[in-house]
Amino acid sequence: MFIGGDSRQHAGSPHSVGRATGMTVLIVDDSPQFRKLIRTVLTGLADDVHECTDGDEAVAAYVAWRPDWVLMDFKMARMGGLEATRRILAADRTARVVIVTDYDDAHWRAAATEAGACGYVLKDNLLDMRRLLDPKTDR
Question: Model-level pTM?
Answer without folding.
Answer: 0.83
